[in-house]
Design brief:
The complex is a heterodimer of chains A (277) and B (357).
Chain A lengths: L3 E10 L2 E11 L4 E5 L6 H9 L6 E6 L2 E2 L5 H7 E4 L11 H7 L13 H13 L15 H14 L4 E5 L7 H18 L2 E5 L3 H7 L2 E6 L2 E6 L1 H4 L2 H8 L3 E5 L7 E4 L2 H9 L5 E3 L2
Parallel strand pairs in A: 3-8, 3-9, 6-7, 7-8, 11-13
Antiparallel strand pairs in A: 1-2, 1-4, 4-5, 9-10, 11-12
Helix pairs in contact in A: 3-5, 4-5, 5-6
Chain B lengths: L12 H24 L7 H11 L11 H35 L12 H15 L10 H20 L8 H28 L4 H9 L7 H20 L1 H7 L3 H6 L4 H23 L5 H13 L3 H25 L8 H23 L3
């Protein structure tokens, strides 16, 4: 049985359909990347799965249970989200932020139990955030902050981790660092991961299943090798993108073709797809 | 095996107990000092002895003049307790609104409560009716109703499709405040023309602890204690809400339900404070802000600490307002503005470095 099952999901924003009849199944322990042009509905889909938005038609089931039958608290114990924007108006310390991840497990009048504290320590450890756990969140660098937000999500002890553009505004090394953490959690703890992501190469490297959203529906899904083709990319992004398949490497590499090269390529009869020797 | 059910959400519990005890001690000291100071000075030890014998803790015959006991029990003590209650209510309400609106510059008056209270109070003066509810004259009673009424209207106006975005709340509150304050100016002008009792309303608008009877203290105390008790249960949800609505929601918080509850409690606290002390500015702004800088932003600790800190601050301000230029009594609002204003401006410069959005 799939951990996340999205059936015939539709959502419109101010009368404009953002998603129409989306169906998607994510198995337990899978790593899925949601791809598509700006405004394709990646963030909306993440929010619908996370339950912060309600769909107008269709259903989302989590481990066989319809999302709307779960209480907010129950959803929060199963699904954690790393949002695109995370701002903290007050001077909370890193540990305090991560402790907030325990919110769905706490009762009104009691504080953190030994079990809660253990989960917080684990989350800090797994993300490498324990080295700066006493610092003020707002004084950290972008990469450090993102680790803390992931640690907060982990402290929820979810089965499913949703990430919305987790590598946005990070340098290349920090992007890899964050996705390494996510992959390791997926492999070691069996966490199901669904991430909206823009960088096709990172998606191809770190995710086993790619889902392309276009025109409010799923255009194509499959492994990186299956779905990354110039035709699919042209359809989704409306521009010419070169797909390189280096020898001895399962995942293709994707590069946009500059307008100038495109004309030269056409003249010499070069197609979008290149086999490198 | 460590204690598995500790009573405080974050950090070392012992430090929190120490902080609470320190602030409680400061409050008691300031209250004893304030109860003794005035035109007739009563030493602190005498204040404690009179209270002790009244509460049945001291059995030796009295060594103080009866006049001291009368002054203490019928004039000073209601006033000091009133100031403590008003201060606690204002600063807890401030902490609630700052957390809820994710804005360290918010204060209890931000969502129109002040305008509603001012209008209600001014109407009370204009009507000059000799009606009293539970020992309160028309001015505090109408101020209380005005504050609550304005809050309800602002909250309903800012709801869109079952949600209440923070920006809508701030804008609706601001617009409402402006409308109400001009309505109040109009009433004051009419009042002038018709030669009614203008002086009363000006004094009230400047803020001053107007509690003089034990029955009034009882009613205010009931609202304030219930409000603070409710507020203390909001600590965890306010921590989550300060990360934004969506993050709070994905942490399992019922955002709309919590927000409505927090606004209701914050407004009741503000209204209770306004009916007991008129419009006293800066307490709700400065006290939680200041405490947050010392003790950190965690609301499970900030809310109880704000109650004690706010009470101490206002008792002290009220004391200074009584003894600064005897026999004139300054409106306490002027003092909180003179202390709070510059302190706020100082913090404003500091926060430029401290808060990053």
């Amino acid at each position: 049985m799939s951990t996340i099952e999205v059936r015939e999901l539709s959502f419109s924003y101010n009368g404009r359909p953002v998603l129409e009849g989306i169906s998607l199944a994510v198995g337990a322990g899978e790593r899925v990347a949601l791809l598509g042009a700006n405004g394709a509905g990646k963030t909306t889909l993440i929010k619908l799965i996370g339950g912060t938005l309600r769909c107008s038609h269709g259903s989302v089931t989590i481990a066989g249970i319809p999302l709307e039958r779960l209480s907010r608290r129950d959803v929060a114990r199963r699904i954690a989200t790393v949002p695109q924007v995370f701002s903290v108006p007050f001077a909370f310390s890193v540990r305090e932020i991560v402790e907030l991840g325990r919110t769905p497990h706490l009762r009104t009048f009691t504080g953190l139990s030994a079990g809660d504290r253990h989960a917080v320590e684990q989350a800090l450890h797994l993300t490498g955030a324990q080295e700066f756990s006493n610092r003020i969140f707002n004084e950290l660098s972008g990469g450090e902050r993102q680790r803390v937000v992931i640690a907060m999500a982990l402290a929820q002890e979810p089965e499913i981790l949703l990430l919305d553009e987790p590598t946005q505004q990070l340098d290349l090394a920090r992007q890899a660092e964050i996705l390494d953490i996510v992959s390791e959690l997926n492999q070691r703890k069996g966490l199901t991961v669904v991430a909206a992501i823009h960088d096709l190469n990172l998606a191809s490297r770190y995710f086993e299943h790619l889902v392309f959203l276009h025109n409010a529906s799923v255009t194509r899904e499959g492994s990186p090798a299956q779905v990354l083709s110039p035709e699919v990319l042209h359809k989704v992004y409306g521009s010419h993108i070169q797909v390189l398949r280096p020898d001895g490497q399962a995942q293709p590499i994707v590069l946009p073709l500059p307008e100038s090269e495109l004309h030269r390529g056409r003249a010499s009869g070069l197609s979008g797809e290149t086999k490198q020797e | 095996m460590p204690n598995s059910e500790s009573s405080v959400a974050f950090g070392p519990e012992r430090a929190f107990l120490l902080e609470i005890s320190a602030l409680l001690l400061a409050l008691v000291l300031v209250m004893v000092l304030a109860a003794g100071a005035g035109a007739v000075a009563i030493p602190g030890s005498e204040v404690l002895s009179i209270l002790g014998s009244r509460l049945g803790l001291r059995h030796a015959p009295p060594y103080w003049p009866t006049s001291h006991e009368v002054i203490l029990l019928h004039i000073r003590l209601p006033r000091v307790l009133g100031a403590a209650l008003v201060g606690a209510a204002l600063s807890v309400a401030g902490a609630l609104f700052q957390g809820l609106l994710r804005n360290p510059m918010a204060d209890p008056f931000i969502i129109g409560t002040s305008g509603g209270a001012a209008l209600g109070g001014s109407l009370g003066v204009l009507l000059a009716a000799r009606v009293s509810v539970l020992g309160f004259g028309p001015v505090p009673t109408l101020a209380f109703l005005g504050a609550l009424g304005a809050m309800v209207v602002v909250y309903r106006l800012s709801r869109i499709g079952g949600q209440t975005p923070v920006v809508n709340l701030l804008l609706a509150g601001f617009a409402m405040s402006v409308i109400l304050s001009y309505a109040m100016s109009l009433i004051l002008i009419l009042n002038d023309r018709l030669q009614l009792n203008t002086r009363v309303v000006y004094a009230w608008l400047l803020g001053g602890i107007a509690v003089s009877r034990w029955s009034q203290i009882g009613v205010i105390a009931l609202f304030v204690f219930c409000g603070i008790a409710c507020s203390c249960t909001f600590g965890k949800s306010l921590n989550a809400l300060s990360l934004g609505d969506e993050t709070a929601q994905q942490l399992g918080i019922h955002v709309e339900r919590q927000r409505a509850a927090i606004i209701a409690v914050g407004s009741v606290l503000t209204a209770a404070a306004v009916s007991g002390g008129g419009l006293i500015g800066f307490v709700g702004l400065i006290v939680p802000h200041f405490l947050r800088m010392i003790f950190g932003p965690n609301h499970t600790r900030l809310l109880p600490l704000s109650a004690l800190g706010g009470a101490t601050f206002l008792v002290l301000a009220d004391l200074i307002s009584r003894i600064a230029i005897p026999p004139t009594e300054l409106p306490v609002g002027i003092l909180t503005a003179f202390i709070g204003g510059p302190a706020f401006l100082f913090l404003l410069r500091r926060t430029r470095r401290e808060y990053r959005f």
